[in-house]
Amino acid sequence: MGTEIVMDKSTLIELLRYACRAPSGDNVQPWRFTWNGVHLSIYNVPGVHNPYLDFEERGSYIAHGALLENLRISAPHYGYNMEFELFPDTKQTELVAVCSFRQCAKNEDELFSAIKERVTNRRPYKIRELTESEESALYKTVADVSGTELYIAKNRKSIQKIAASASSVEKIILEDKRMAEHLFSKIVWTDKEDCEKKSGFFIKTMEFNLVQRFVFRLASKPKIMYFLRKIGLPSFIAKQDAVLYSSNAGMGGIVIPDESAESFIFAGQALERIWLTLTNMQLAFQPLIGMTFVAYKTETGRGDLKDAHAKKIKEDFKQAKESLGVTRGILAMLFRFGDAEKPSVRTRRRDPDVTFV
């Protein structure tokens, strides 16, 4: 890893605050750290992601990839270059990476300022064509990320098909009693609760109006949700989401060669670079990962959906891949981007969990 440099604790904490602004499913922030004065060890916190969407911690590894990318981007601001080794000790299964730092002249990566501004935006986006310069910038930003391919859909019919595919998982989640109960258990309903927890799925990030929020709160009650299923609420929500997702300047997907932990970490790095690049361009972004994970689990025999749900998610996964032009590898995630009003809120972050040894 080259000549390693000791870093003081205060600088490390500041650096980690930037790193920990990485996205994670339901804002679970599945990481902890140890620091021995020279090496930073990054550990996964297992079992915190949605068990019905995630498999073998792959969702967490996407989050770790984004965290590592933030760390790499932020280090030069403090006068360091960062290098890391993935899964250096097979006996420590939770050890994701060991990082070392080399001193350099202070400088600022072009994506650094976007780290604090990056946010999920679930508002409607303006429907327009993607410009050549925007498309070029997206492909360029992931060109050097190992083992990932970026696919972008610009054709409006293709975008509508991808949007419909991505939204189908919402219907399945709400119709499946187990998945719905887990979803509602992770909802953070009030500002006070969000301030205290600084994790979880904050309801205000959904950008619901008052009526939608009221109905969603009612749906969190199992007996009421049973009735709402009978009158077709899950199908209605999925159709509304399909319309929402199809409002954009483009939709994209990140493809990886295999399901190794390393590949999902690389996918997380690519995701963060795309997101930060779009943030610098003043464009909104929403990741759409649920469908791809449920579909891949189902295709590989890891899922336990009802037959009708399994058949539907496989069909939608196939449609999304065909619409993007994906013919090889694993479609790890989808996303949409475009012009939109700023989101009303953003998720909070816990302070870095660091053990000094």
TrEMBL record:
GO molecular function: oxidoreductase activity
Protein name (Swiss-Prot/TrEMBL): Nitroreductase domain-containing protein
Organism name: hydrothermal vent metagenome
